[in-house]
UniProtKB/TrEMBL annotation, chain A:
GO cellular component, one term: ATP-binding cassette (ABC) transporter complex
Descriptive protein name: ABC transporter ATP-binding protein
Keyword annotations from UniProtKB, A to Z: ATP-binding, Cell inner membrane, Cell membrane, Ion transport, Iron, Iron transport, Membrane, Nucleotide-binding, Translocase, Transport
Positions of the ABC transporter domain: 4-292
């Protein structure tokens, strides 16, 4: 069963379309990271799911219950159209989308907007939003006295209806879950470090055992070291509690390492969803490829499944070109490149010439020009630019000594390319 | 975050209504000019008497404001940025004159030096009473200033004096401008302090006119001129304040600055500060102590009644001001927009008019439109609200800013309805600032003299009016207990302002 299904959701704020036709669904117990640049609409998406804002079009279903639906019959029609339209982009990743359409169909023509406090959603804001006038314990207990209707498991109803003992038990349970020292329970939020505050915020959201947890860039306010550490702790706690989770973030690393699936949001559109490794391996377009991580884009000409480039002939791993157009660009990740000095004995193997060597402490960055007639084998059928392509290659420090300006070199490529 | 959230129509209507009521005094001034007509007003305005008042008032502002700025900024710098011995004590002593109402200070001076008077006397008393109005914001700014700026200037080759004039002083501009404006408005609005030493300003002249011809054209004409001067000052301040952002950029807490060594200047600074404290606190307090020991002033019959009536009137005003300020602050913090700024600004404009104008306006409006309200506690309370609303607004805005919507949303996500979320999260966070707002308004109202004299029902006795009737009848000993109570009433408000100015936050 899908815990969350979003279909055809659009939202306009102040005359600007913040979200357009967003469709995805999330199986129970899985974690999804939605990644997008600032202004891509990712926070708005969470606020719509949480019930802080209303949808303009489309429908949101939580645990089989329609919690948001725009008025008018067009809403459901639009939702299905959305899936079709999105199909092209999400062709390889349709696993989730299909399930979304099934759940909670028939939201009806009337607008639905279940208020935030009746949705059973756990929400963790960017800065934690801990109540400054309450201790950690009182913060954690806050959700147990809200009068939220039926819980999602037996333990909750006990804590909700039961007395202080049950509440205290639950508080200690979640504190342990997020690895929070019980000595901190009596402190006030301002007496905690940033990382501790975020863990309390997560624990507080988990206390009433919500059907789903929404994390709005919960690590962005933390320093780099603390950030990684807090992220590990949060993932461990989420893994342990088995709660369905949506994280929004602008950090690609964070998104790729967070969970079972990833969604790419840009300009209010969800352009790709799928398993993190699958999405990283085969981004839907060149923009997505560069957004997800360092990328080398080469002009290519594809003939019978082989890309001819400045680096020679490269096998095509995925063809992402749209509707039969001839692909012109190939995506390589820096990890796929290996730079070797031309030992002289094998001069004909050189396909690049070194332009610059920059020492970067732990490694060296060697900038080369490939495909400008630098070596015998280079340039065959390349993108047509006689000046070749400049490429930065990361080289272990120990090998950096072999390279200097003007030295011919060979770039070896492992794995195929994705062409667009 | 409040994006996309629109204020409810009820809230907007309510705030509009409040702005309209707050603007009654401004409307009154305009209607004088329109109704009475220029032909009637011109001869009343262009006569030697008015010219003399105008010169007096302008000289008062022209000399008083720079003096207050010099004393306030200099004091703040000595206390905050130097190695002056006893900085903590001086820090308190420089704020303390604010706890002595200007007319009490004037009483202290005139009973000690009966010959005091004229522009010189007025300047002396007013400067000593009002320079803390520049000192406090200057302290707050200096505390919020990142010392890295000064350190950068030093490393760029500037000496200590150059650093002060080229880096520190420009940063103090907002504090100086804002404080200067407040001083100027106080100087124009002050009645008691100048009436006691028989120094004529617009405000004293209006009261005299009012006592002889009621709210007639003569008083109105003077009022229109006074209000115009105030509004011109407001516009001048707003248009020269500049839009530059002087707040600390970047995150993290600023370190404490390394204080400057005064060296040979230290004794000079100490003597100066001591002299300032003796003149601003010593003289009034010494006079008070002397008059308290004459006769048995504490056994006056009217004392208990006036305490009760003061508490009732000021307390009512405080509650009313908080209730009125709450929707205005809510609109401007939770739903910031151009409209909210305009509405909030309207309330500030009204409050910057002298109390005498507000009183005249309310007298005229109640008599003409709702005679039943003339000289009732309601009208006095309304006057207090109009005069002191900014005090409540500033407090409540700060409080609301510390109770962001995100917290209400967090509570909602945890299963609390909006009402429950506001009761359990927003209200507790707001309580301290509600308390501060009520205290600031209440304590100000307890000291208020001009509007209370004009508007209170016959037979009303507040501490301020009792003090006034005794001291203007030269019954100095009888006035002393009221003066002591007025000072005691002011202490908490000043302590509050003092504490706020020392919080290391720039707002």
């Amino acid at each position: 069963m899908s815990a969350l299904s979003v279909s055809g959701v659009s939202k306009t704020l102040g005359g600007i379309a913040v979200l357009a036709d967003v469709t995805f669904s999330l199986p129970s117990g899985t974690r999804m990271a939605v990644v997008g640049a600032s202004g891509s609409g990712k926070s708005t998406l969470l606020r719509l799911i949480a019930g802080f804002d209303r949808v303009d079009a489309g429908r949101i279903v939580l645990g089989g219950r329609v919690v948001s639906a725009a008025a008018g019959a067009s809403a459901s029609g639009l939702a299905e159209g959305g899936i079709d339209a999105g199909g092209g982009a999400a062709a390889a990743d349709a696993a989730g989308a299909g399930a979304g359409a099934g759940a909670g169909r028939g939201g009806g023509a009337r607008a639905v907007s279940v208020p935030a406090h009746r949705r059973g959603v756990g929400y963790v804001a960017q800065d934690g939003a801990l109540f400054p006038h309450l201790t950690v314990r009182q913060n954690l207990r806050f959700g147990l006295s809200g009068g939220r209707s039926a819980g999602h498991s037996g333990g909750l109803s006990g804590a909700l209806s039961g007395g202080r003992a049950a509440a205290e038990r639950r508080v200690r349970e979640v504190a342990e879950l997020v690895a929070l020292d019980s000595g901190l329970l009596g402190r006030f939020p301002h007496e905690l470090s940033g990382g501790q505050q975020q863990r309390v915020a997560l624990a507080r959201a988990l206390t009433p055992e919500p059907g789903i947890i929404l994390l709005d860039e919960p690590f962005s306010a933390l320093d780099t070291g603390l950030r990684a550490q807090t992220r590990e702790a949060v993932i461990a706690a989420l893994e342990h509690s088995g709660v369905t989770t949506v994280l929004v973030t602008h950090d690609q690393e964070e998104a790729l390492s967070f969970g079972h699936s990833i969604g790419l949001l840009t300009g209010g559109r969800l352009v790709q969803t799928g398993e993190p490794s699958a999405v990283f391996d085969s981004p839907v377009d060149a923009w997505a490829a560069e957004f997800l991580g360092a990328a080398v884009l080469l002009p290519v000409e594809v003939v019978r499944g082989v890309a001819h480039s400045a680096l020679g002939e490269l096998p095509v791993r995925h063809d992402r070109s749209i509707g039969g157009a001839r692909p012109t660009t190939a995506l390589l990740r820096p990890d796929q490149l290996r730079l070797m000095a031309d030992a002289g004995a094998n001069a004909s193997a050189a396909n690049a010439v070194v332009l610059e060597v920059t020492l970067r402490g732990s490694h060296a960055r060697v900038t080369v020009r490939a495909g400008a007639g630098a070596g015998a084998g280079a340039g065959a059928g390349a993108g047509g630019d006689a000046r070749g392509v400049e490429i930065d290659v990361r080289v272990p420090l120990a090998e950096a000594g072999q390279f200097a300006r003007g030295v011919p070199a060979r770039i070896q490529v492992t794995g195929g390319v994705v062409v667009y | 975050m409040s994006r996309g959230s629109r204020p409810s129509a009820l809230l907007v209507v309510l705030v509009c209504l409040i702005a309209v009521v707050m603007l009654v005094p401004v409307g009154y001034v305009l209607s004088i000019v329109l109704q009475v007509g220029w032909s009637t007003l011109a001869p009343l305005i262009f006569r030697p008497k008015v010219g003399e008042l105008l010169v007096n008032s302008l000289l008062l502002v022209g000399f008083g404001v720079p003096l207050c700025v010099a004393l306030g900024v200099g004091g703040a710098w000595l206390v905050e940025r130097t190695t002056l011995p006893g900085r903590r004590v001086w820090g308190v002593l420089l704020a303390a004159p604010l706890a002595i109402p200007a007319f009490v200070s004037s009483y202290g001076w005139v009973s000690a030096v009966p010959s005091i008077g004229g522009l010189g006397g007025g300047l002396l008393i007013a400067t000593l009473a009002y320079f803390p109005l520049v000192y406090l914001p200057a302290v707050a700014t200096l505390r919020g200033l990142d010392p890295a700026l000064e350190e950068s200037a030093r490393s760029l080759g500037l000496g200590p004096w150059a650093v002060f004039f080229r880096v520190v002083l420009p940063q103090l501009r907002l504090a100086v401008w804002g404080g200067g404006l407040v001083v100027a408005l106080h100087l124009l609005a002050e009645y008691g302090a100048f009436a006691l030493i028989r120094f004529d300003t617009f405000t004293t002249a209006i009261v005299v006119q009012y006592e002889s011809t009621f709210a007639g054209p003569a008083a109105s004409a003077l009022g229109a001129v006074l209000a115009t001067v105030c509004l011109v000052l407001l516009v001048v301040e707003a248009s020269t304040r500049g839009r530059a952002r002087f707040a600390r950029l970047g995150s993290g807490v600023a370190r404490r600055a390394t204080p400057a060594r005064l060296g040979a200047f230290a004794p000079l600074a100490l003597v100066g500060l001591a002299l300032l404290s003796v003149l601003s606190i010593g003289v009034p307090v010494a006079s008070l102590v002397r008059w308290l020991s004459v006769g048995d002033p504490w056994s006056q019959r009217e004392l208990p009644t006036s305490i009760i009536q003061t508490v009732l009137l000021a307390g009512g005003g405080a509650v009313a001001a908080v209730l009125v300020a709450l929707p205005v602050a809510w609109l401007s913090v939770r739903h910031p927009s151009r409209r909210a700024r305009v509405l909030e600004g309207a309330t500030y404009v009204a409050s910057s008019l002298p109390a005498i104008i507000i009183a005249l306006a309310l007298v005229t409006v109640t008599i003409r439109l709702v005679p039943a309200l003339y000289q009732t506690p309601f009208t006095v309370g309304l006057a207090y609200v109009i005069i002191f609303l900014p005090r409540a607004l500033v407090s409540l805005r700060t409080g609301l800013a510390q109770a962001p919507v995100a917290l209400e949303e967090a509570a909602e996500a945890l299963g609390h309805s909006l009402v429950s979320a506001r009761l359990r999260v927003t209200l507790p966070l707001l309580l301290p600032s509600i308390g501060a707002a009520a205290a600031l308004v209440g304590l100000g109202a307890a000291n208020e003299l001009t509007a209370t004299l004009l508007l209170a029902p016959n037979g009303t006795r507040t501490l301020a009016t009792q003090f006034w009737s005794a001291s203007s009848a030269v019954a100095y000993s009888n006035a002393a207990p009221y003066a002591v109570l007025l000072i005691l009433l002011s202490v908490p408000a000043v302590a509050l302002l003092f504490a706020q100015s020392r919080k290391r936050v720039t707002t």
